[in-house]
Structure formats: structure tokens, C-alpha cells
Amino acid sequence: MKLDVLVVGAGFAGCVVAERLASSGKSVLVIDRREHIAGNAFDKQDAAGVLVHQYGPHIFHTNAPHIVEYLSRFTDWRPYEHRVLSSTDGKLYPMPINRTTINSLYGLSLDEAGIAAFLKSVREKRDRIENSEDLVLSSIGRDLCDRFFRNYTRKQWGLELSQLSATVAGRIPVRTNDDDRYFTDTFQKMPAEGYTSMFQNMLNHPNITLELGTSFQQVASRMQAAEIYYSGQIDEFYNFRFGLLPYRSLRFEHEHLPGTKYFQQVGTVNYPNDHDFTRITEFKHLTGQKHAGTSIVREYPQSQGDPYYPIPTPENQARYEQYKQLAAADKHVHFIGRLAEYRYYNMDQVVAAALNLMKNSLR
């Protein structure tokens, strides 16, 4: 069987690519090895009727108007600004670290200038920033690092801060004001009917055929596609020729609490120093849903399981570069997305990359 385009993966990357190609007149087959669309952003009602994110919280935020304009074709939005608290010594503090965090933790009453001076006094000077530990210690000093970052990193990544690229810690800002929003992007909203509904609308095109529970290997033997857009693991595509690209996985423990209006004050609470899990998310904060009970999820990082986070170390990046060279020679195969590019993308970054790829491909 011949077709114009095969898209592997029905998450953000694959669905954007499929929609754009289908709208240009091409026939597109979208496959996914899972039994559902939307990738890790998949959401559904649990047994109690609460809308939950099956693979942990997905909070949409961006500063790019063209991404909002594009996705707004497929969904309405509800306002939501994500807030996170972090537990240390049995108390909860705003995360990212801000003026409230420092004043509450140390019993101070500093203004913004005072917080800036405090941080300057505790920072550990580094001539070169070579890893996440260098970045954190040079930004907030050792005590704050140990309370909020060091053990969380051990749990989340199975590595020390000193073993991780500075890009990991660089994702989390430090503030001298009282802004307790986790993100400061100009656009912070959630799909009004959920992510899965948005993806269904994206794939609702006469030129798109969808096959779920189907792997690339199953399709490759029976179909010939002029173009392939691949959003799976790039090392798997090349049969692990240069070895395995490691990923960090997660185990999700979902729980419904009947008769509990809210379990916690904010959408997510981090537990850097206690418990085997890293955080608890309560979905009613995210969705605005009204329900007599509430549903939460605990996240337990692990080394085995579905791939979620590329592990950013120099060794892993060097191995990826070998696969990238192979990919550059495959002119009819295009690699897009977090797994295919071995990159820690945010959702809006995946959409931007996919739209940019389509802009160049459809000229």
C-alpha cells in the first residue's frame, strides 16, 4: 500500500504535522503504539468522573502568539496560572523560590532589594558554569539548594546535580519579588475541554487516517510512504546502532478522594526531601472542574518504563549526535519531537518546531 505521508506518533509533534499536511491536500496515516491519541498530554475522566491527566500534569504556557493562534483553531481555553509549593521541614513554601519563600523560611522581612542582597551574600562563586550544581549554588547558595533542589534531583533523575547539564536547573528561575506563579508567560491557559478533545479536533480531517495500538515496525512492512515524520525514539528507529539513549521514566499513582473538595492548596506540591514520590498534583485546580470529590496523582521517578525525559548529560548528547548524523542522511524521514530529537521540549516548543518544519516542507 502506498500513501503520501506516514506520521509516527499522535502527540503534539505528530498531530500538528498531520493536520498541516492533510490541510495541504496530502493523504496522511497517523499511527501510535498506544491505544489513544494525545501522547503524554492524554487526559480522560477517571472512574469518579474527574478529568485527570493520565501521565502527570500538563500546563500550557507560551509567549508565542502564532502558537496560540494555531491551537485556538481546535480548542477554546480557560484561564489558569499554575502555582507550586515545595515541602521542606514539614512546611510549604512557594516554588520557584521568591521573596515569600526566603522571608518565611528564615523568619525575615526583607524587601526586594534586601532579597537581592541576601542572595548575593549566600551565592557560591563559580568561574565556569559546567553543570546544574554550579548553576544552583552560584544562584541561591548551598542551604536553599539542599532544601529544594539536591534531593529532588536525585529522585527525579537518579543523578546528582553535578552530573546534569546546567540546562536542567536553568529551567527554574529565582525571584526577588512575591510572584508565586510557576510560569510568567503572557499566555497561560488550559484547553477548555481537555487536551484529548483538542487533539481529536486536530485529527478530524478527511485526509487523515488513524491507527492506534500500531507500531512503526508493524506498518513499515506493509506500507510505502513517500515521506515519514517520526516522533518516536530515534535510537529505536536505527535499531540502537550506537547504543541506548537513556530516558527517565515515571510511575503514576492515581487516587480519587470522595467527599474531599480539595486535597491541597495549589495544583502541585513538591516533596524534595520526603517520600519516594517527587510531587502530588490535584487536577481540579488545573481544570476548574466542579466535583464533590477530588483526584490526585503521585509521581514516582524510575529508570525503566515509558520514556518521558531525555537525560541531559554530555555523554548522552554525544551519542545522540551520532544518531543525528544518520538522520541527516535519511532525506525522506523527518525526526520531530522530544524523543526523536532527544530534547527536553515544553509543549509550546514542540508545536513551534512542528509548525516550523511544516513551513519549510510545504513551500
UniProtKB/TrEMBL annotation:
Against Pfam families, the record matches this protein to: GLF, NAD_binding_8
Q: Per its UniProt entry, what is the enzyme's top EC class, as one word?
A: isomerase
* Cofactor section: FAD
SUPFAM superfamilies, A to Z: FAD-linked reductases, C-terminal domain, Nucleotide-binding domain
Could you tell me the keywords of this UniProt record? Answer: FAD, Flavoprotein, Isomerase
**Which InterPro entries does the entry link to?**
UDP-GALP_mutase, UDP-GalPyranose_mutase_C
Per the record, the domain of life is Bacteria
Give all residue intervals belonging to the UDP-galactopyranose mutase C-terminal domain: 148-344
The enzyme's E.C. designation: 5.4.99.9
What are the recorded GO MF terms, alphabetically? flavin adenine dinucleotide binding; UDP-galactopyranose mutase activity
GO cellular-component terms in the record?
A: cytosol
Signal peptide range: none
| Residues in coiled coil | none
Q: Which PANTHER family match?
A: UDP-GALACTOPYRANOSE MUTASE
Q: Which family does it belong to?
A: Belongs to the UDP-galactopyranose/dTDP-fucopyranose mutase family.
**What is the protein name stated in its UniProt record?**
UDP-galactopyranose mutase
Higher taxonomy:
Bacteria, Pseudomonadati, Acidobacteriota, Terriglobia, Terriglobales
